[in-house]
From TrEMBL:
Protein name, per record: tRNA(His) guanylyltransferase
Cofactor(s) of this protein: Mg(2+)
Keywords associated with the record: GTP-binding, Magnesium, Metal-binding, Nucleotide-binding, Nucleotidyltransferase, Transferase, tRNA processing
Ranges where the tRNAHis guanylyltransferase catalytic domain occurs: 38-88
Residues reported in the UniProt entry to bind Mg(2+) 1: D61, G62
GO molecular function per UniProt: GTP binding; magnesium ion binding; tRNA guanylyltransferase activity
Endpoints of the signal sequence: none
Domain (Thg1 C-terminal): residue spans on this chain: 132-248
Catalytic activity: a 5'-end ribonucleotide-tRNA(His) + GTP + ATP + H2O = a 5'-end phospho-guanosine-ribonucleotide-tRNA(His) + AMP + 2 diphosphate + H(+)
Family: Belongs to the tRNA(His) guanylyltransferase family.
Function summary: Adds a GMP to the 5'-end of tRNA(His) after transcription and RNase P cleavage. This step is essential for proper recognition of the tRNA and for the fidelity of protein synthesis. Also functions as a guanyl-nucleotide exchange factor/GEF for the MFN1 and MFN2 mitofusins thereby regulating mitochondrial fusion. By regulating both mitochondrial dynamics and bioenergetic function, it contributes to cell survival following oxidative stress.
Subunit structure: Homotetramer. Interacts with MFN1 and MFN2; functions as a guanyl-nucleotide exchange factor/GEF for MFN2 and also probably MFN1.
């Protein structure tokens, strides 16, 4: 398998949903059962309880997504349509609901590309007991995003612009360091990697923020028979996509509420 576009979308997926609470439960929902001799089978359905007072990270990964991307003509090394689709639906859906939402909104982003078959995703839960553990995990995902994207940017430049086969490009890059990859990009393709979009280099971070939303509302005006439609502004908590460095302290200083204890 040759390298593919495990870049910003990988970081967005891997960063996943981060929750902190006193208790988190996973698994099946118990349903009331009629009294009978068969009721003992409920003993095989214990709740999977996460350790209290930990950060709960739900990591979402695509299954056989390399093949899915190939068959749906994803642009390499990055496809803005795929990244925007994943970012727009990620915050509200995890695993099964994410998959159905991904399929449902496919046409909004891939207008000319029919969906040949539904993609598959799987999820895992990891507990991190300290704020520093969580920050280190997210830093790891962002560093991995950068490493993968740099490799793929050079790899696909060699394939698409120099005419190398995937095997030849892979051989050319084998054992090269980051500086050498940057030199290939600049000297052979006039690409300054630092000028590549931040979404590709840093990935996507979704942060809950208070945003002013303008909505239309019908109101009843005295002495008038019909309701009138007016625009009103409401403050709404919205998941805002950011493409920025989260390894340093600046991000955490700017958004201290992320690590703040629940009141």
């Amino acid at each position: 398998m040759f390298p593919w576009q495990r870049v910003a979308c990988d970081f967005a997926a891997a960063a996943a949903t981060v929750v902190r609470g006193t208790r988190a439960r996973l698994g099946c929902v118990r349903v009331a059962m009629a009294k009978s001799k068969f009721e003992y089978v409920r003993d095989f359905e214990p709740d999977d309880t996460c350790l209290p007072n930990c950060w709960v990270v739900v990591r979402l990964d695509g299954r056989n997504f390399h093949r899915f991307a190939e068959q749906h003509g994803f642009k390499k090394p990055n496809d803005d349509r795929a990244l925007q689709l994943m970012n727009s639906k990620f915050m509200t859906h995890v695993v099964s609901q994410f998959a159905s939402s991904y399929v449902f909104y496919w046409k909004d982003y891939f207008e000319d590309q029919p969906l040949l078959y539904p993609p598959g995703f799987d999820g895992r839960v990891v507990l991190y007991p300290s704020d520093q553990n969580l920050k280190d995990y997210l830093s790891w995902r962002q560093a991995d995003c950068h490493i993968n994207n740099l490799y793929n940017t050079v790899f696909w430049s060699l394939v698409q612009r120099s005419g190398l086969t995937p095997v030849q490009a892979q051989t050319r890059l084998q054992g090269t360091l980051a500086g050498e990859k940057n030199e290939i990009l600049f000297s052979e393709f006039n690409i300054n990697y630092n000028n590549e979009p931040l979404m590709y280099r840093k990935g996507t971070v979704l942060v809950w923020q208070k945003v002013n939303k303008v909505i239309k509302k019908k109101i009843k005006i005295p002495e008038e028979t019909e309701e009138k439609e007016v625009e009103v502004t409401r403050i709404k908590m919205t998941a805002v996509p950011l493409h920025c460095d989260i390894i340093g302290d600046q991000f955490w200083d700017q958004y201290p509420e992320i690590l703040a204890e629940d009141s």
